[in-house]
Amino acid sequence: MATGTRMSARALLSMTGDLGAEAVAYTELAGRIRTLISDGRIPVDTRLPSERELASLARRSRTTIVATYQALRDSGHLVSRQGSGSRATLPHLADVSKRPPRAVNFAGSIPPPVDGLRELIAETTADLPDITTFPGFDLVGHDALRHALAERYTQRGLPTSRDQIIVTTGGQHAIALTAHTLVSRGDVALVESPTYPHAYEALQRAGARLVASPVTTDGWDVEHLLATIRQTRPVVAYLIPDFHNPTGASMAPEDRARLAHTARAAGTTLVIDEATVDLNIDRPWDDGPFARHSARDAWSDGSGVITLGSLSKSIWSGLRIGWIRADEAVVRRLVQARPAGDLGTPPIEQLIGERVIRRFDELVLGRQRLLHQHRAVLSEALTRRLPQWATPWPDGGLSMWVRLDRPGSSALTSICRARGLSLIAGPKFSIDGSLERHLRIPFTSPVEELDAGVALLAEAWNQLSTGTLAPAIGREAASVIQEVPSAGIAPQRLSRATSR
Ligand SMILES: Cc1ncc(COP(=O)(O)O)c(C=O)c1O
Q1: Which atom of ligand 1 is nearest to the CA of 275?
Q2: How far is the CA of 316 from the centre of ligand 1 (A)?
Q3: Does domain 96-112+363-499 have CATH number 3.90.1150.10?
Q4: Separation CA 303–CA 326 (nearest Å)
Q5: Alpha-carbon dihedral of residues 217, 220, 224, 227, nearest 10 degrees?
Q6: CA 316 to centroid of chain Cα atoms
Q7: Residue with CA closest to ligand 1 atom 11
Q8: Closest ligand 1 atom, residue 276 Cα
Q9: Cβ contacts of 380 within 8 Å, gap of 6 or more
Q10: Fewer Cβ close by (within 10 Å): the C or N end of the chain?
Q11: How does DSSP classify residue 390?
Q12: What is residue 483's predicted lDDT score, i.e. its pLDDT?
């Protein structure tokens, strides 16, 4: 939701979660809304629904809602003005003006353009064919790029034809298009917890009822994953088996084979996001594309594995080149469904994309070198400044999924944001608002920023831990830490994810 916009009571209640039949005290509702404001899911300046509208839709007394809004005003999360309603704010925003802004961005895991890309773009554009002869609306993508992608899958052990590829406008578009094409309102979709947030948002938007299965930095609870698929028979399961975002874990080859088999038996289509598959730093094995494990069984009914790819993480996100590899029948369905959201990927980017794919192995080495160096810098800074945190050592990917010594991820990110360090709190990566003990810290920023960012983090965490923040911040932080929000749709059983 954009800053400054008005939020309906329905949208707010969909984020706070079902309040249930039993009376929920105003402190709890206030707590849930406070968390949403603190971790940015309700942006500052968003206009909240009127007390009357919220009371009526939530089926609570007006008094409860009046008290809820008052509690939010007291903790500095809401300002109400006659005529302009009640707007979300943060208690320590005033602090920002007193401090010199040190903008450090740990919110996105966005690596810089890979070395050699600038030259490759210059070559491509110097050599440009007359692109006005290309189709204006190109729903499936350029032949040459699809061919290059198919060849790369084939070389990596998964025979693929050009007709099994559709080029998309980035990986996020690939996720959204797949979700809209495969999921109907009310269908069950399985996701990992934690997972890439914009993926579960796309599934929710397509009408999916989500169930979740846990992943930690040690990997998947495979028995839980397979049992959940057998029990709930989801229409799709969205998974990131290589250098998982945010944990960095990779699924063992033997587990992939079991997963492919179980999903097939349950009639579940596996949507395998391989946007991060090439971000290997020092993982000693490469199992090739996940779909190899299901390619042994032939089918053409559209069930099976759908693979999503992207150049964003390995090369540069500004290219907006993604793709989907699927059964030909599925590709036809995707192409048919595409015009509702998008009419094609721009041609120049596709021409660049084709050259990138042809020189991929050489280009990606630069990315792997950068990640190797940045992982060491971040790890050293965290161990030195925040030794009380459990800092994992991922063998690939773009970030560390850090375990804090106690819950407080939302409070911490909220304080850091006001001090110029943007970060995403752990709960954003789960569908139920849990994971307050975790924080994703990307190692994609420039090296100097990694250290400056960790210094800001350590200062904020130590102040939060010792209660030496300004009174308004301390109050707010304490209330965020105490609550365990239960927004969203409850996952099946999240024992491992929530207890670790
Ligand atoms: C796992 C994963 N998939 C897909 C995407 C989407 O990337 P893009 O749309 O830039 O290709 C991201 C971006 O962070 C991601 O982490």
Answers
A1: 3
A2: 11
A3: yes
A4: 9
A5: 160
A6: 17
A7: 171
A8: 1
A9: none
A10: N
A11: B
A12: 35
At 219-262, the pLDDT tens digits run 999 999 999 999 999 999 999 999 999 999 999 999 999 999 99
Q: How many Å lie between the centroid of ligand 1 and the Cα of residue 130?
A: 31
Token pair of 349 as six digits: 């980017």
Render the burial of 468-478: b for 16+ CB within 10 Å, e for the rest.
Answer: ebeebbbebbb
Angle at 241 between CA 334 and CA 397, to 5 degrees: 110
What are the tokens at 18? 């079902």
Name the nearest CA neighbour of 158 among 289, 277, 296, 251.
289
Residue span(s) of the chain under CATH 3.90.1150.10 come to: 96-112+363-499
CATH class name, domain 9-89: mainly alpha
Which atom of ligand 1 lies nearest, measured to the CA of 173? Answer: 9
Residue 294 pLDDT: 85
C-beta 245 within 6 A of ligand 1: yes
Residues of the chain with pLDDT under 50: 94, 96-100, 298-302, 471-500
CATH number of 117-361: 3.40.640.10
| Rounded Cα–Cα distance for residues 112 and 370 (Å) | 10
Query: Buried (b) or exposed (e) across 294-306, using 16+ Cβ within 10 A?
Result: bbeeeeeebbbbb
Ligand 1 contact, 275 CB (< 6 A): yes
Q: Indicate the SS3 state at residue 116.
A: coil
The confidence score (pLDDT) of residue 21 equals 59
Which residue is closest in CA terms to ligand 1's atom 14?
109
Ligand 1 centroid–CA 167 distance in Å is: 15
pLDDT at 471: 45
Pocket test for ligand 1, best of 109, 110, 168, 172 (most atoms within 8 A of CB): 172
SS3 per residue for 322-384: EEEECCHHHHHHHHHHHHHCCCECCHHHHHHHHHHHHCHHHHHHHHHHHHHHHHHHHHHHHHH
> Where exactly does CATH 1.10.10.10 map onto the chain?
9-89
Nearest-atom index, ligand 1, CA of 398: 16
Could you tell me if the CB of 312 is within 6 A of ligand 1?
yes
Q: Is the torsion defined by CA of 155, 157, 161, 165 positive or negative?
A: negative
Cβ(309) to ligand 1 under 6 A? no
Q: Is the dihedral of CA 244, 250, 256, 258 positive or negative?
A: negative
Please give the single-letter amino acid code of residue 152: R
The residue nearest atom 3 of ligand 1, judged by CA position, is 275
Answer whether 80's CB lies under 8 Å from 86's CB: yes
Pocket-testing residue among 245, 290, 429, ligand 1, by greatest number of atoms within 8 A of Cβ: 245
Q: Is 276 in the pocket of ligand 1 (CB under 6 A)?
A: yes
Residue extent(s) of CATH 3.40.640.10 domains in the chain: 117-361
